[in-house]
Amino acid sequence: MAKVLYQYDVKTPSPDVDAEAMVLKIRENLPEEYSMQDGTEIKPMFFGIKAAVCQFISPEDNGLQDKLENYLTNLEGVGEFELSFTTRL
Fold first, then answer.
1. Which distant-in-sequence residues (6+ apart) come within 8 Å of 27 by Cβ?
2. Counting CB atoms within 10 angstroms of each CB, which of 3, 40, 46, 80 has the fewest?
3. Which residues contact 12 (CB under 8 A, 6 or more apart)?
């Protein structure tokens, strides 16, 4: 079965949130269908907000992108996020 790579820019909800800690929280609680690539880049955004460039890999199944986005939406300590790239592996 093919796999899909999703790259998201995941923003901290406020300048007070540590971006590295946010990335660890995302990685530790990630549903089993996904793996998260190492080497997440942290970029400064605006007004002290930072964005983590996170890459996730999952099987190519219907609904898995929505499941990942629901996971990120409901995870405490994560701000807005945006899909910046996706490709089939």
1. 36
2. 46
3. 18, 19, 22, 49, 50, 51, 78, 79
Which domain range does residue 41 map to?
3-88
pTM value is 0.92
Q: Which amino acid is at 76?
A: E
User: pLDDT by residue (tens digit) across 20-57?
Assistant: 999 999 999 999 999 999 999 999 999 999 999 999 99
Q: What CATH number is associated with residue 12?
A: 3.30.70.60
Spatial CA neighbour of 54 closest among 81, 21, 87: 81
Q: 73: pLDDT confidence band, cut at 50, 70 and 90?
A: very high
What total of structural domains would you count in the chain? 1
